[in-house]
Design a protein that fits this description.
The structure holds 2 protein chains of 2 kinds. By secondary structure, chain A is an alpha/beta fold. Chain A is built from 9 helices and 10 strands. Chain B starts with a helix and ends with a helix. Classes of the chains: A alpha/beta, B mainly alpha. The interface between A and B is medium-sized, with 28 and 20 residues.
Chain lengths: 246, 222
């Protein structure tokens, strides 16, 4: 992987909430087009790490360099950076007062990335891509959990990001809806999107991840290919965690 | 009763008009004041938080009648002492300022509570798309907050209308003051105050009926 371009360079990242140190000196490089799946017990800091990558959580120390731009720098226009990083949340966070199509159009039209008509067209294309073109005029409350999450993915794709962050995208779903969301994510991965996914879906990690990162207690314990981490974990904590979830 | 209405009818209508004018002006400014101070309160800037809280605490901590006297008598005296010796403040202006400040403080709390009732994930999702704080607030958070705020705003609307009666103490010729005038001139207190009471009631019930309709239509389709 040495010749691949580094997309996200995280150096000595620390994050504290008051006295509680959630991330303790994390460093990692994520390559262009790579799918990195972050696993670990709850409270291990994996969601916080993900949320630092678009500065929804402001880093306490360290630097995060995306496409050569230090996003922890106060002078960086974080809104511009975020246009390029899509994020999908555990609880979807669709805008309930807007229709599905309006949800998707909002950012590109409002930020003048495209005209309203183009944003609409793009929205319809994205809905087709996630298999929900018939739901364009529905309100989020009329959708199932799996549909909501697919709309949320379409919404974050509307800005044409080249990085996608997923924060436990299937954890709030009924079991029978997990598959449809994972299928959309797999397609994205196959299209070459750089993805960082926090999830408990070990099966998905095994199948789609280029690399699995196991975190515990605010630090990376072990990382490697799915083969290495899931089949041959070396660290006791990784073995212990996998025994519990598999 | 009939005699009173015959003699004072047009004056009563005028007084009612003044009551409504005071209410509408005050509500208009209160909305602006409320929006400004609530946004100060929900943001992360400590200084603005402090200013927002201080305003709400100060105004809510003073009875409206005291605030009215302070603005009508106190403030002009202060300005005169600073050199503008011919400064006068019309009662309508003083009344509107006092009522707007008072209502604005309550409005700030209503708006703050409304904004805070919106799930934090809404702001985060909007920010994650690259929209800045102001746009996220305006396009995503506030439209949802307003929905939960409507019943409280209607309530405040009615309270403000009734509070205009307090402004009779500075001689504004609104409805309550007209009651004083009529009962003083005719010695028919029972009839005079019954008429005034009924006039308030009619206006308030009408307004709350309209408001209920607005509330229903705002909630439609969800």
């Amino acid at each position: 992987m040495a010749d691949r371009k580094i997309k996200i360079h995280v150096q000595n990242l620390k994050k504290s909430f008051g006295k509680l140190e959630v991330l303790k000196d994390m460093s990692i490089d994520i390559f262009e087009g790579e799918v990195v799946v972050v696993i670990g017990p709850s409270g291990s800091g994996k969601s916080t790490f993900l949320r630092c990558l678009n500065q929804l959580e402001v880093a306490t120390a360290g630097s995060i360099i995306i496409d050569g731009k230090n996003i922890t720098d106060k002078n960086t226009d974080i809104n511009k950076v975020r246009e390029n990083i899509g994020m999908v949340f555990q609880h979807f966070n669709l805008f309930p007062h807007k229709t599905v199509l309006e949800n998707i159009m909002l950012a590109p039209a409002e930020l003048k990335i495209m005209t309203k008509a183009d944003a609409k067209e793009k929205g319809r294309q994205l809905l087709k891509r996630v298999g929900l073109d018939s739901k364009a005029d529905a309100y989020p409350s009329q959708l199932s959990g799996g549909q909501k999450q697919r709309v949320a993915i379409a919404r974050s794709l509307a800005m044409n990001p080249d990085i996608m962050l997923f924060d436990e995208p299937t954890s709030a779903l009924d079991p029978e809806m997990v598959g449809e969301v994972l299928a959309v994510m797999k397609k994205l991965a196959a299209d070459g999107m750089t993805m960082v996914v926090v999830t408990h879906e070990i099966g998905f990690a095994k199948e789609v991840a280029d690399r699995i990162v196991f975190m515990d207690d605010g630090a990376i314990v072990e990382q490697g290919s799915p083969q290495e981490i899931i089949m041959n974990p070396k660290e006791a904590r990784t073995i212990d965690f996998l025994n519990k979830v598999l | 009763m009939i005699a009173i209405i015959q003699t004072y009818g047009s004056m009563l209508i005028q007084a009612l008009g003044k009551t409504l004018l005071l209410t509408l002006l005050s509500l208009f400014f209160a909305m602006i004041i409320g929006m400004i101070f609530s946004l100060m309160n929900v943001g992360k800037n400590r200084l603005l938080n402090f200013i927002g809280t201080a305003y709400v605490d100060a105004v809510r901590g003073v009875p409206l009648i005291v605030l009215t006297y302070f603005i009508y008598f106190g403030v002009p005296t202060g300005i005169q002492m600073m050199g503008a010796s011919d400064f006068r403040m019309p009662a309508l202006v003083a009344g509107t300022i006092a009522l707007s400040m008072n209502c604005g403080a309550y409005m700030a709390e209503i708006i703050r509570a409304g904004i805070e009732s919106v799930d934090k994930g809404q702001m985060e999702a909007s920010r994650s798309l690259g929209l800045n704080y102001g746009k996220s607030m305006r396009l995503v958070v506030l439209p949802q907050a307003i929905r939960t705020m409507i019943p409280s705003i209607i309530n405040q609307f009615i309270i403000t209308l009734k509070d205009t009666s307090i402004l009779s103490v500075i001689g504004l010729a609104e409805l309550t003051n007209m009651g004083k005038t009529i009962s003083g001139n005719t010695f028919k207190s029972l009839e005079a105050w019954a008429i005034i009471g009924v006039m308030y009631m009619i206006v308030i019930i009408t307004l709350s009926k309209i408001a209920k309709r607005v509330e229903r239509s705002a909630n439609r389709g969800r």
